[in-house]
Design a protein that fits this description.
heterodimer, A: about 80 residues, alpha+beta, Ubiquitin-like (UB roll), about 25% strand, B: Rossmann fold, Oxidized Rhodanese, domain 1, eight-stranded mixed sheet, 13 helices
Chain lengths: ~80, ~350
């Protein structure tokens, strides 16, 4: 079970601030992002991705572990 | 002495003392933006005794600002923000020197302004200025205290602190289209809290106490009080030299035009209106010669456009259209203008036109 946190405009798309996801086989970060994009249609929304409180490259070659927390962080613009 | 009386309660903190107060009095801080974040940051920096405060903003106070920009009085509506800030600070703490710049930050003035200060605070409300501040901070080697809001959430970080990671390391994709307060909505408390976090980072840097939020972004949600910190590394994706800064910011200027001044061209066959918003964005605008290409895909679909045609680019509020117009100019498009204020400005005018 991994946890995914959503912020800002990304959370508006997902209509939730976090969700838990179980997976049976290996799941790469890239595949997860691809699946989420298909599910929520992020389209032109830009965001950075963190795994366990650390921003990583979206193209990172990383296989998710069951206790991982992934976060999708878009830039904010208000002030 | 009146100064030590004024600051006594903070000077008795062992972390500040006489030394710290002296450091504050010698510090020079430039705040970009006198909106919601600035309204929280400025009085606290001034009250604490920061010696010199510069403030850059070309806006005048509007009635719709007052619910969150709490330093302004109702009677000041219509007046210059930076002049009101100067007045407010002179009453709050006459020991502070205030430099008011009633101008827009641009590639032309950023570097010469930043050079005169120790710390640059980003209290702006749009993304393209954040990249400009970041890049000018890199050229002048100044730390940038970033704060930003989306509805009930805020982000804070300090970039380029002692050569640390920058805004571009966190958000490399410059062509994003995050919403500002006007588009997304905001309450005063969220900008107040985030502005206070920024002021705190400024004081910590000046005093050399605590841990600066460098290489970390703090995300705060005021609805559930959840607070997270995320670490990020320095990437080599950076604009460093003065030359590349000039190349990027001072080369081709995008000309902005008011929609009301081109009304007689909306039925002209030789003119194209280019909507760079996403396909689903409302309100829909349908002019006779109009095409929709989302900003993100503009470069890929550039073949659809004629380099010699007169093209007016528009988006929701006039920010993305400038990026789009710039992109077209880079591709040798000759007659490109961006419609100032975007659809938000166009829709009212179009309504009136239809009535007539």
């Amino acid at each position: 079970m991994i946890e995914i946190k959503y912020f800002g405009a990304v959370a508006e798309k997902t209509k939730c601030e976090f969700e838990k996801l179980s997976f049976s086989e290996e799941l790469s970060l890239q595949k997860l992002l691809q699946d989420l994009n298909e599910k929520y249609q992020f389209e032109s929304l830009s965001f950075s991705v963190a795994v366990n409180q650390k921003i990583v490259s979206k193209a990172a070659d990383y296989n998710l572990q069951t206790s991982d927390i992934v976060a999708l962080l878009p830039p904010f613009a208000g002030g | 002495m009146s100064a030590s009386n004024r600051y006594n309660r903070q000077m008795i903190l062992p972390e500040i003392g006489e030394d710290g107060q002296y450091k504050l009095s010698k510090a020079k801080v430039l705040v970009i933006g006198a909106g919601g974040l600035g309204a929280a940051i400025l009085p606290y920096l001034a009250a604490a005794g920061v010696g010199e405060i510069g403030i850059v903003d070309d806006d005048v106070i509007e009635i719709s600002n007052l619910h969150r920009q709490v330093i302004y009085k109702s009677s000041a509506v219509g007046k210059s923000k930076v002049e009101e800030v100067k007045l407010m600070i002179s009453e709050l703490n006459p020991l502070v020197k205030v430099n008011a710049f009633a101008e827009k930050l641009s590639g032309k003035n950023a570097i010469s302004l930043f050079e005169k200060y120790d710390i640059i605070v980003d209290a702006t409300d749009n993304i393209s200025i954040k990249y400009l501040i970041n890049d000018a901070c890199l050229v002048t080697n100044k730390p940038m205290v970033y704060g930003s809001i989306f509805r009930f959430q805020g982000q804070v970080s300090v970039f380029n602190y002692q050569n640390g990671p920058t805004y571009r390391c966190l958000y490399p994709d410059e062509n994003n289209n995050a919403l500002n307060c006007e588009d997304a909505g905001v309450i005063g408390i969220s900008v107040g809290i985030i502005g206070m976090f920024q002021a705190n980072e400024v004081l910590k840097m000046i005093l050399g106490i605590g841990e600066v939020l460098s290489g970390k972004i703090l995300v705060y949600n005021i609805l559930n009080n959840e607070q997270q910190k995320y670490d990020f590394d320095k990437s080599n994706f950076q604009l460093i030299s003065r030359e590349s800064f000039e190349e990027k910011y001072n080369k081709s200027e995008v000309e902005e035009i008011k929609f009301e001044s081109i009304l007689d061209e909306i039925n002209n066959d030789s003119v194209l209106f280019l909507d760079v918003r996403n396909a689903h964005e409302l309100p829909k605008i349908s002019l006779k010669n109009q095409i929709q290409i989302t900003l993100l895909y503009l470069e890929n679909e550039i073949e659809k456009l004629d380099k010699n045609q007169k093209i007016y680019v528009f988006c929701q509020s006039g920010i993305r259209s400038k990026i789009g117009a710039e992109l077209l100019q880079k591709h040798q498009f000759k007659k490109i203008k961006s419609i100032a204020g975007g659809v938000l400005a166009m829709k009212d005018i179009l309504k009136e036109e239809i009535k007539i």
